[in-house]
Design a protein that fits this description.
The chain is an alpha/beta fold and 216 residues long. It is built from 7 helices and 8 strands, in the order H-E-H-E-E-E-E-H-H-E-H-E-H-E-H.
Length: 216
């Protein structure tokens, strides 16, 4: 299975989630996208479910020698969450990554200010929170996001992604009430390989999606 682009992937996710909603399994939903890549996917889900769309900014902490390899993640003012197994295999410690964490926290705050435009974060108490991204590789950013959401007392937490590594999906089942992943290829390699069009999104793309959703 390969998705044409993030919009098509979002529509496929939305169809599955709508069936659950019609059975009464997703009461009072709110959709939280992990920007940037998850926003386009999440916009399709929110539209079909008739749910509000917002963002949950998470920043990956990359290994010093390979930034794309996620060894941890941060949300808000929370302490960095590290994948201790990966750190151990790489011979790294969390303290060694302090400069990386600080740099990513600065970028996280910049994005929060830009994307929120003065709006407070949504109240998640008692709601069904659907966390959406465009894919799961190590799952470390999604784990940080799910834990952040859980601390805000939702009724239930659902993680929905078009594609993910089987290992990441398995690990995240312990963090969410439900994990929905349309495709779990055995030879995963990277999220972008499972999209024909996987162009990088800009801040303007994120803002456009949020503004469009707010006008519905």
């Amino acid at each position: 299975m390969q998705f044409r682009d993030r919009r098509q992937a979002g529509r496929k996710l939305a169809d599955l989630l709508r069936a659950q909603q019609e059975r009464g399994a997703l009461p009072d939903p709110v959709v939280l996208a992990l920007p940037r890549g998850g926003v386009t996917v999440a916009a399709e889900v929110a539209q079909v479910l008739g749910a509000p769309l917002d963002v949950l900014v998470v920043r990956k902490i990359g290994a010093p020698f390979q930034e794309e390899l996620g060894v941890g993640a941060i949300t808000g003012d929370d302490e960095a969450l590290f994948d201790e197994d990966t750190l151990g295999r790489l011979g790294l410690s969390g303290s060694e990554l302090a400069p990386v964490v600080e740099r990513e926290r600065t970028e996280l705050r910049r994005r929060e200010r830009l994307y929120r435009e003065g709006r407070p974060a949504p109240d998640l108490r008692g709601r069904t929170v659907i966390v959406v991204d465009d894919g799961l590789a190590t799952g470390v950013t999604a784990r940080a996001a799910l834990r952040s959401v859980r601390r805000r007392a939702p009724r239930q937490v659902v993680l929905a992604v078009p594609v993910g590594s089987p290992e990441a999906v398995r690990l995240l089942r312990a963090e969410a009430d439900e994990v929905i992943c349309l495709h779990q290829p055995v030879h995963f390699m990277a999220v972008g390989l499972w999209y024909e069009d996987f162009q990088q999104l800009s801040d303007a793309d994120v803002l456009d999606a949020l503004h469009t959703a707010a006008q519905r």
